[in-house]
Amino acid sequence: MDWLEFTAAFATFFLSHSVPLRPSFRPRLEQELGRRGFTLAYSALSLTALGWLIAAAGRAPYVTLWDWAPWQRLAPLAVMLPVSLILSLAIARPNPFSFGGARNEMFDPARPGIVRLHRHPLLLALALWATAHVVPNGDLAHVILFGTFAGFAMLGHRLIDRRKRREMGADWDRMRAEVRKSPLIALRFSRDVVVRVAAGLALYLLLIGAHPLLFGVSPLP
What we know:
By secondary structure, the chain is mainly α. About 65% of the residues lie in helices and about 0% in strands. The model has no long low-confidence stretch (mean pLDDT about 85).
């Protein structure tokens, strides 16, 4: 197997994430599918492209960059717990600073939740996931795969900050200053927080259990 499939999967993944969001395409797609339909279709397309990309990395020529050792499994095993919690606390929550926020008009800078820790929690989760998975995957294809995701997530912080600052104007600086004044760690165990933390723990256990079925290798030592 040569590098053709891996290259094609990479190109398809980035095209599937960029083309539907272009101003010349998105309005027409949302008109045809509805906003909810567009979101569901875009999510399904993105997950399908990601699945193909990960599978293609596994089938690409194996070029060793460093030898594997049993301790390397501990990196993703440890990092995926905070990743799962970040995802559960961030998804479908108001966040006017980043993408993926829901009901942003309800965002309260005095109670920003996980946004107090990071303006872009979903990108943070992506960067942590990718960086941790580089450690036990020391072949060229997987280093390119996870390294690209990590770099994309880190660069995305600046790109989104620039776009949101332009869109929000003076509100961006004002709200950011208000968020910084809020407690760094606010222990507010509301029902929503408890449910989200429980969902994050369940996601972590699900990923551990499903990993051998999805990727053919157990994350456990």
